[in-house]
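Lab notebook, bench 4. Continuing the backlog of folding jobs that were queued last week. Each job is logged with the same field layout so the records can be merged later without manual cleanup. Today's entry covers GDSL lipase/esterase, a 367-residue chain. Filled in by technician R.K.

JOB TYPE: sequence-to-structure
TARGET: GDSL lipase/esterase
LENGTH: 367
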Amino acid sequence: MKVHIGRYVLILAVTASVILQQPELVTGQARVPAMFVLGDSLVDPGNNNFIQTLARANFLPYGIDLNFRPTGRFSNGLTFIDLLARLLQIPSPPAFADPTTSGNRILQGVNYASAAAGILDESGFNYGARFSLSQQMVNLETTLSQLRTMMSPQNFTDYLARSLVVLVFGSNDYINNYLMPNLYFSSRRYRPPDFANLLLSQYARQLLTLYGLGLRKIFIPGVAPLGCIPNQRARGISPPDRCVDSVNQILGTFNQGLRSLVDQLNQRLPGAIYVYGNTYSTIGDILNNPAAYGFTVVDRACCGIGRNQGQITCLPMQTPCPNRSQYVFWDAFHPTQTANSILARRAFYGPPSDAYPVNVQQMTLLH
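JOB STATUS: finished
OUTPUT FIELD FOLLOWS
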């Protein structure tokens, strides 16, 4: 089984207009004062526990490897963000919607991610309430307004410039929008490259807004090979030992366009460093070479029901697989903690093929 990305030509609306003033690379321990996270269920720490939605994970066996403590994370254990925070030696940022996330708790960052959220406001509506990208941006600005009152203007400017922002979006715009023609019109309205361009234009607007708010270090992972997740394999439209190639192929424009957008933003915005995370390649490498990473099961979920354990995702009190570290996928949609750990380390330490143009560790050393 090989994972392939289609090739598309993309013209972006954002054009280079200012030569990047290259930030200075300094040596030393990677340090950021705070991490702000926007995204979907891949990085939701429990925001959806506080809203009316079907997209929740606040029940066992979710959290089974967090001392049997379900927190709302869509994982058997830690998420990509939790593991990245460990590498950065900072606490994993708390959920914005948690009433206790206030005062000094916000000083080292906040996580706004919401399961079922997409770049487009309508993506994921089939699950009920969720904080879309645009709403998460509003929530971020609320936090920044509070932080502004907690330090001097100069300190606040420096704090923002050194903080890390991570955005994890795009999956739901496909899984819970474009690939659900019975509920959404997008696949009839747009060809795959046109839909990707729509997503990129919306994303670019918000990425520019982050710069306008004073934030300068932005990490943006692309979309994984969604045709390989148990949910898509369970559709039964590909041979049992293969990913759904037709799904993976339509993601090429989005991921390649996001990488191009990073180049253009870095050229246009003085002092900024936007970084593209090649999630597609990393997951593809794991799926193509599972034994090298200690995995034995790549085609079905550890917790789920039906074909590939992906037709119905993990249910309350369901008994999951015992050998979770050998599975790439925890449920119908999400990776295990073990897979998340590989993603975090590749983002933090990896070469430009994993994180472009620099990795997260290098990014934090730029001033």
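OBSERVATION: DSSP finds twelve helices and nine strands in the chain.
SIGNED: R.K.
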